[in-house]
Amino acid sequence: MLEGVLFKAYGGFYYVKIGEEVWECSLRGKFRLGKGNPALVGDRVRVTPVRDRIGRIDEVLPRKTELFRPPVANIDQAVIVFAVKNPEPNLALLDRFLVLAESANVSPVVCLNKADLLTGHREHEWLKLYRRIGYPTVITSSKTSQGIEELRELLTGKTSVLAGPSGVGKSSLLNAVQPGLELKTGDISHKLKRGKHTTRHVELLPLRQGGFVMDSPGFSSLDLPQMERVELSYTFPEFAVFSAECKFSGCLHQHEPKCAVKQAVEQGLIQQERYQHYLAFLQEVIEQERRY
């Protein structure tokens, strides 16, 4: 068998880079009948040749990381892109994706795009919160080139995915980072006040400065990953320094007495909105536990 990297899955076909060649592959029957995502963009796979550059994926090698939304494997970081406006930033959705990335051991970067639409400082005050927590942040504009060099440096030498709602300008950003990609871009629907889907599939793209990047379809909602309720607080990094002081081990930071995290919220050391998102997510995780 030959070994390569799955760089695109589209229309029921899987395209694998083997050396300098591109092979069009199908999936072995046992994968098609299985549950979940049998082969993801970014996977290292073993291919059995069928005929000239056409093969069958017979084995998916172990993954170091995996995201289910977007469905990608073996990435180092997720650049989570939101816009200044058009569409307006949804911080609950941002926190959902941060939980997803943290639980998958994927390093997140928070990107605020369309900086050319900024009319005042308060429009991106929320970004400072994530910077204080410790997340790398970048402010960009594909129209003025603000932050493009900084974003390029963040992508260099890593395998990254750009993720976020439709219409925030992910494809435009990648076109600015590497002219010549010519990814399709779209506009905001003025009627629905949200982006139109222009990226229909995930594709692994090589960067000239080293590394790989994936554009991905936008989303307007996001399920939380399956986890135990006690694991959720670990995906909120700002809780860590306080949770060690909670009276009870396994504290959920909800109704428990002498909870150091709740005290930190009351003292303004943990941002109230992030904590409220945590409580809402906790209820979802508990409901998931009951279903499974």
UniProtKB/TrEMBL annotation:
It is found in: Cytoplasm. Its EC number is 3.6.1.-. Residues 73-220 form the EngC GTPase domain. Keywords: Cytoplasm, GTP-binding, Hydrolase, Metal-binding, Nucleotide-binding, Ribosome biogenesis, RNA-binding, rRNA-binding, Zinc. Binds 1 zinc ion per subunit. GO terms for molecular function: GTP binding; GTPase activity; metal ion binding; rRNA binding. Zn(2+) binds at residues 246, 251, 253, 259. GO terms for biological process: ribosomal small subunit biogenesis. InterPro entries: G_CP_dom, NA-bd_OB-fold, P-loop_NTPase, Ribosome_biogen_GTPase_RsgA, RsgA_GTPase_dom, RsgA_N. Its cofactor is Zn(2+). It is an enzyme of class 3 (hydrolase). The keyword Lyase does not apply. GO terms for cellular component: cytoplasm. Residues 64-222 form the CP-type G domain. GTP binds at residues 113-116, 164-172. The keyword Phosphoprotein does not apply. One of several proteins that assist in the late maturation steps of the functional core of the 30S ribosomal subunit. Helps release RbfA from mature subunits. May play a role in the assembly of ribosomal proteins into the subunit. Circularly permuted GTPase that catalyzes slow GTP hydrolysis, GTPase activity is stimulated by the 30S ribosomal subunit. Belongs to the TRAFAC class YlqF/YawG GTPase family. RsgA subfamily. Monomer. Associates with 30S ribosomal subunit, binds 16S rRNA. This is Small ribosomal subunit biogenesis GTPase RsgA. It comes from Desulforamulus ferrireducens. The gene is rsgA.
